[in-house]
Automatic annotation (TrEMBL):
SUPFAM superfamilies registered for this protein in UniProt: MFS general substrate transporter
Tree of life domain: Bacteria
Taxonomic placement: Bacteria, Pseudomonadati, Pseudomonadota, Alphaproteobacteria, Sphingomonadales
Keyword Electron transport: no
Spans through the membrane: 15-38, 50-69, 81-99, 105-126, 138-161, 167-187, 221-239, 251-272, 284-303, 323-344, 356-381, 387-408, 472-496, 508-526, 538-558, 564-585, 606-631, 651-669, 690-708, 728-748, 755-774, 780-801, 832-851, 867-886
Name under which the protein is recorded: MFS transporter
Species the sequence originates in: Sphingobium cyanobacteriorum
Sorted UniProt keywords: Membrane, Nitrate assimilation, Transmembrane, Transmembrane helix
């Protein structure tokens, strides 16, 4: 008797492949009105509501029949039900091509919609071939047939322009009929049906099949699917018209752009199934609803003109989403919808293995109804309000209701599940009443590392090193992007005057300085976030937050009338990238043993710092060409040279990488269960004298690195206007970043304090050299001295961090003599980690005060030289402080670094 276990992988693959292909063709026919409906609307003179009804009618039929088609598939098998469904739809599609009146087209559309019912047939048929552990992946792959909507959008416009909409209907009908024949010839009965035929067992009756529909959970899942699938279908139908109306593109371009949404909402469904199998559908649903709310809020905000009555007159500016960000936003929305679709259907074969047809049919029915109801609602709301973005406002309200209902239901069921450890449930706790421990094994902890022992050599070699390296390799690009966005204004401000922004030198330096102000301030808070929220969640959120300034810059620079205060706000928001360093370094430090902590943090910090030079190298290139093609927006014209500049690319270029890095952090990183500490527990560092001394010294190293990075492009352009400085200045921060990553061994060999002292001596020499070459008007010497200073700051960044753990290992036993050696070691490590984060926060203010000092110096004295004299005095104070407190005979680290005193408790450095 055939069973799931006895069927071969070849048979399974054939059943899945045939079903997915058939569903793709069905979906292409089902959504055909998204393209031909636009031409029909013109021919018949339909209003938006009538158009919405025509587009939604096939969706209505395809939705209503899903319940019965699912039941019939359970009873009679997909091999016969699927071809009959496709043939009936093909006949109606041919009829449509001969219809000439609106009522006749509605009638043909009803029959055409049978193609949409193929989904319920495929779900019931495919699920019979796979075991429970693989059903999420299998059904996710089958659901990729949604890509048929993209096929129609890509191909149908060209066929319609060349041959007319009637030809599209006839060709699509022919392909559907041929697919029905091929499916019947090559498909086999599913294992359950074959077993029933051998045993003579009768299929379950309709009443028995519909029995599970009384469960509230089934209807709640139906609501979720109403959004993730129904809204997908509705947008797939509505987007071509939206793009034509809002952005003025033609039908071919509208079809291709709308297809990007259909593609992302389809092809990633298989990935959603894999993620649901691995991590659980509950997490996927929360992520889907949360991200969708954010995106729909952005999409629903209409293009608006603002008038602010200011002191010197009215200030006018506009906000709108241009074509490129819109396409990116709907692509991301489609991606998360595809994950959500797979997550919903992950539950059905798990909890209702004997009723997949009826339960899957009902969920599909309600979801499909969304594809019918929502286009009509979109049309009605558009007619009523006259606002194009009202369709996204409707979806925002829908997803907010779904998320709220899901969360409240889960919390209620958790409270009611007395006697059941809800943490052992594989999916939603709301399914507690249906939970069967034998059938539904608990999920693994997944991303939470409950057992983490990096100091255990056996654990490290077998498990720990692999996990730690993965987290490090994901953290580095995220931190690199953070630095790139943080410092992007250092290049953008140098180009603003060229395209019509009439700002003073001091105003431009303010824009370059403000990201440093917010970045440094946020670091104070970010340095305490990892033990409170977990490194994985915080890395994901902090990286994703970079999308706000990246998009904002892309919008703002395209309009010379954008008010200055909008640029100030965007500059402040770029500081979100600056805060990431503190949390990133803190998080990675927890993964590595003491012997490898320094190298890991040097790589994370040093390669992350590369974001500055990467940005200063990449942005000048991407703003000189339309790298996004026709989707990149119109170029700006340089006032003096007439050259074309796409300054918006300075923000947009980072968007895809930020999205990818955020997803990689969420799905690839881990949280360590033992890393838990409140802010109060970490706040003891504010009582430590050496915390504040190291803040001063680290400001002299990292503060100089980040401050000069922010100000060097604009400073070089002001002092050497005859030189295209942007071609060269990126070299300096590149050298600084590499020197930090490559010179940690210097401090390990000679001692952090001794190296830091000579770093400040070298910085004094560097400043004197810069002053000399500024007065000589020698750009090459000027740049060479800055490269030298950046190289030295890289060494100093590593050496100052090397000092911190050694200082605390000396101080904690003196300050807390009641602690045992082991307790003192743990306390020293905890305080050292917090001090590393806090000192990085204070030092980051260099990104504010150095550009601002240059701006004020040029405004007041007409030259940056007074600023350099001030920096010279600061480096002298740093050298004196390092010598007096740490390296002189009697200093805290003098004997330790020279091997005279016994080694302090515990060894290793955090950076």
């Amino acid at each position: 008797m055939p069973t799931q276990e006895s069927t071969s992988s070849t048979e399974r693959s054939r059943a899945l492949g045939l079903s997915t292909f058939a569903f793709t063709v069905c979906f292409a026919v089902w959504t055909i009105f998204a393209i031909i409906g636009i031409e029909i609307k013109k021919e018949l003179g339909l209003n938006d509501t009538e158009f919405g009804l025509l587009v939604g009618t096939p969706i209505l039929t395809g939705s209503l029949v899903r319940l019965f088609l699912g039941v019939w598939t359970d009873q009679y098998g997909g091999r016969i039900v699927f071809p009959l469904t496709m043939l009936a739809s093909a006949a109606s599609t041919v009829l449509l091509s001969h219809a000439t009146t609106y009522p006749m087209m509605l009638l043909a559309a009803l029959g055409l919609g049978l193609a949409g019912g193929g989904f319920a047939v495929g779900v019931a048929y495919v699920s019979k071939w796979y075991p429970q552990a693989r059903q999420g992946s299998a059904l996710g792959f089958f659901g990729m047939g949604n890509v048929g909507a993209a096929v129609t959008k890509f191909v149908a416009p060209w066929v319609m322009v060349a041959m007319g909409w009637q030809a599209v209907a006839q060709i699509w009908a022919g392909v559907l009929a041929a697919t029905a024949v091929l499916f019947f010839l090559f498909a086999k009965d599913d294992p359950d049906l074959a077993a029933r035929k051998l045993s003579g067992e009768k299929p379950k009756g309709l009443k028995e099949q519909l029995e599970p529909l009384k469960n509230e959970q089934v209807w709640r899942f139906s609501l979720y699917y109403f959004f993730v699938f129904g809204a997908f279908v509705a947008l797939a139908l509505w987007l071509p018209k939206y793009l034509i109306g809002v952005y003025g593109v033609d039908i071919k371009v509208a079809g291709m752009l709308a297809a990007t949404f259909s593609l992302s909402a389809s092809v990633f469904r298989a990935y959603g199934g894999v993620l649901s199998d691995r991590y659980g559908a509950r997490r996927i649903m929360y992520t889907t609803f949360g991200v969708s709310m954010i995106l729909l809020f952005m999409l629903s905000y209409p293009a608006t003109d603002y008038v602010i009555h200011g002191v010197k007159g009215d200030i006018r500016f506009s906000t709108s989403m241009s074509l490129v960000p819109f396409v990116i936003a709907i692509f991301v929305l489609g991606f998360f919808m595809s994950l959500g679709k797979a997550a919903v259907y992950k539950h059905i074969p798990v909890y209702y293995p004997d009723h997949v047809g009826s339960v899957g049919g009902l969920v599909g029915l309600v979801g499909g109804l969304g594809g019918f109801v929502l286009p009509i609602v979109f049309g009605a709301v558009s007619d009523l309000t006259g606002i194009w973005t009202s369709c996204f406002a409707v979806l925002f309200a829908l997803v907010a209701v779904a998320l709220a209902w899901m969360h409240l239901a889960i919390r209620q069921m958790e409270q009611k599940a007395s006697g059941i450890d809800v943490r052992t449930l594989p999916e939603f706790p709301e399914m507690a009443g249906l939970h069967d421990a034998a059938r539904h094994p608990p999920l693994e902890a997944g991303k939470i590392l409950s057992d983490w022992r990096p100091e255990d050599p056996a654990f490290w070699e077998s498990t720990g090193e692999r996990i730690a390296r993965r987290n490090l390799f994901i953290s580095i690009p995220a931190l690199l992007l953070a630095f790139a966005v943080w410092m992007v204004w250092s290049v953008v401000v140098a180009k603003l005057p060229l395209i019509g922004f009439d700002y003073t030198t001091d105003q431009l330096f303010w824009l370059a300085a403000l990201p440093g102000l917010t970045g440094a301030t946020l670091r104070i808070f970010y340095s305490f976030m990892v033990p409170i929220f977990g490194g994985r969640l915080w890395t994901t959120l902090s990286t994703a937050s970079l999308l706000i300034p990246a998009f904002g810059i892309g919008y703002a620079v395209q309009n010379p009338n954008t008010p200055y205060f909008i640029f100030l706000v965007l500059a402040l928001l770029c500081g979100l990238g600056g805060g990431n360093f503190a949390s990133s370094m803190s998080n990675i430090g927890f993964f590595f043993p003491k012997a490898r902590k320094g190298n890991a943090l040097a790589l994370n910090g040093g390669l992350g710092n590369l974001g500055v030079s990467v940005m200063q190298f990449v942005v000048p290139m991407v703003i000189t060409s339309g790298v996004f093609g026709v989707l990149g927006g119109e170029p700006q014209i340089a006032a003096k040279t007439g050259a074309h500049l796409w300054l918006q690319n300075a923000g947009f270029i980072w968007v895809p990488f930020i999205i990818a890095s955020s997803l990689l952090a969420w799905f690839g990183m881990n949280d360590i269960a033992d890393v838990k500490a409140s802010f109060a527990e970490q706040a003891v560092i504010f009582q430590r004298k050496h915390n504040w001394l190291m803040c001063w010294l680290y400001t002299g190293t990292f503060g100089s690195f980040i401050g000069y990075s922010a100000s060097l492009p604009l400073l070089a352009k002001k002092e050497f206007p005859e030189v295209d400085a942007l071609k060269y200045v990126w070299i300096a921060p590149l050298v600084g970043a590499i020197s930090r990553a490559a010179t940690g061994w210097v401090a390990d060999k000679w001692g952090g304090a001794r190296v830091t002292f000579w770093v400040f001596v070298a910085m004094i020499v560097g400043v004197i050299g810069v002053v000399h070459f500024l007065e000589a008007k020698d750009f090459q010497g000027f740049l060479a001295m800055f490269v030298f200073m950046f190289f030295v700051t890289g060494i100093g960044n590593a050496s100052t961090f090397q000092m911190i753990p050694n200082i605390m290992r000396r101080e904690v036993p003196r300050l807390m003599p009641e602690l045992s050696a082991a307790e003192a070691t743990r306390q020293a490590e905890k305080e050292a980690g917090a001090i590393v984060g806090f000192t990085s926060a204070i030092a980051a203010y260099g990104a504010f005060y150095i550009p601002k000092t240059f701006g004020s110096s040029i405004t007041l004295a007409g030259s940056p030289l007074p600023a350099f004299y001030g920096f010279l005095a600061f480096y002298v104070s740093c050298a004196v402080l390092t010598w007096w407190a740490y390296t002189r005979r009697g200093g805290l680290l003098h004997d330790v670094e020279r091997g005279i005193a016994a080694a302090p408790i515990a060894q290793g450095a955090p950076a």
